Amino acid sequence: MLAIKLKLAGKKHQRMFRVVVAEKKSKLQGRYVDDLGFWNPHTNKFSLNEEKTNKWLKEGVRPTDTAHNLLVKAGIIKGAKISVHKKSKKPQETEVAAAVVSATEQVVEEVTVNDAEEKHNVDEIISGPITEEAVVNTAEERPVSEEVVSESATEENTEEAKQEN
Fold first, then answer.
1. Count of domains in the chain?
2. Which of 39, 6, 1, 10 lies closest to 20, judged by CA?
3. Residue 10 falls within a domain, yes or no?
């Protein structure tokens, strides 16, 4: 299959390209069927033979991405340019980082919800009247010393203690 592609020409550090019709999988320095013009990326000058280019396009020859962009710039092909840059690895790293951040946020939310539920249960136990069942339930969940139980006594129990003294 033929393609309109760029053939490397020029010296080292002074590269320019010939726009040629060649086999799609041919080597960079390989043979070509027809020469359509040139492109110098350093000075951004180019020249294309429109008649030859249109002839080859009508025959079904497809340009490579860079050659397509050059033809669009020359006005031979109408349409949008094709992105030819390699995809960077940074977006993938940011996607991974975003996934890690969202996972940690979910874990933090679960931990705060569990802490809030636990605090709510402890507040109910402390604010409620002290009974043997409450002390037994708290002892099962966590070891509770007698000092904590006496400090968490309700107002009624403290009034009774004052009256006895």
1. 2
2. 6
3. yes
